[in-house]
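My current task is to audit a protein record that another person submitted. I need someone to confirm that the C-alpha cell line plausibly describes how this chain folds. Take the sequence as given and treat only the C-alpha cells as open to question. This is what I was given:
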Amino acid sequence: MSVEIARVVVLVLAVAVGVVVYRRVAGPSERPPSTGAAEELGLLPRSRQNTLLSAPAPALERALAAAAHGGWEPAARLMAATREDRDWPLRCAHARALGDAAAEGDGAWLETWTHVAGPDDPDVAVVRAHATVSVAWRLRGAAYAKDTSREQIAGFHRTLAQAPAEIECAAELNPADPTPYVAELHTARGLNYPHARVHRIWAEVTARDPYHFDAHTSALQYWCAKWHGSAELAESFARSAAAAAPAGSLLAVLPLVAWWEHHDAGAKAADFRSPRLVALVDAALADVAAAPPGHPRVATVRHVLAYFLTRQGRHEAALEQFRLVDGHIGAFPWAYHADPAGVYCHWREEAAKGAGRR
C-alpha cells in the first residue's frame, strides 16, 4: 500500500469515527424534531405559524396575496368597504397591513393603483401614507440607535420626512377618518415631534374615535422611555386610557404593555405574580370577554394575555388563549423578537406542560 493510499485510509477512518461519535451525541441529522406537549394537544407546529397577521383575516389575506402578484383591485375594494362602513378600527388594520406589504415588496401594485385611482382617492392615499412610514422604519431596522448605522439613520429620516405631506393629503381627502393620524403617531416617534405636537395629533384622533385601539398602542410607544417619554409617562397614559374606556374597548391591555416595555427584561418570576399585575391581567381578560367578536384587535390582546398568564403560572387559562390565536402570531410580544415563532412556541410549550402537570 502506498503512502498516499495509507493517508487516505487513515483520513476516511477518522471521518467515520467522527461521524459515529457525533451521531451518538447529537443523533442522526435526519431525525425529526420531537413533538412537544402543545403539538400533542393539537396545536400547530412552529413551521405553520403565520408571523405577519395576529389572526385569520380571509379578505385581507386575499388582498395581500393578490398584491404579491401585482393585483391592486382586492385591496381597493377592501379599503372602500371600510370607508363606506366607517369601520375605523378595521380600516386602520387593513391600511397598516397593506402598507407593510407594499414596503416589503417592490410596491408596483400600489403605484398602479395610484395611477388608476388618481390623486383624490382617499383609500389609496391612506395606504400610501402607511407604506411610506413602513418603508422608513424598515430602512432603520429594529436595533437601538447605537447599533444603527449612519446610512440607515439617514435613509430612515429621508424617507420618513416624506410621510407628513402624504398623511395630510389622506386626512384632507377623508376628514372623518382617524387612520392617517395613526400613521402620524408612528412618524412622530421617528421625527422626534415634541410633546405639544403629539398632544395636538392626539386631539385629532380622539375627536374622531376616542377609543381607537391602534392609535392608543402607537401613542403608548411614543410615551415610552425608549422614545420620547419615561416609564412614568407611559404608565400614566396607559392607566388613564384604560380607566376611561368602556368595557370591550380592549384598552385594558395598555397597562400590561406599558409594564412589559419597562420591566419585562429584568423581571423575576415573582414580579409577574404580584397582586397588581394579576389584577391587570384579570381586567384585560374581562375586557376581551366584553369585546365585539368582530373587533380586529381581539387576537392582539389574547397574545398579550397568553404570555402574561403563562408567566403567572396560570397555565390552563394561558393555554385557552393560545388555542384561540394559534396559527397567526404577528403580534406583541412575539413580534419584538428576531424569531417570533420560536419565542411564541417556547411560551406555548410552557403553558401546555404546566397545564398537563395539574
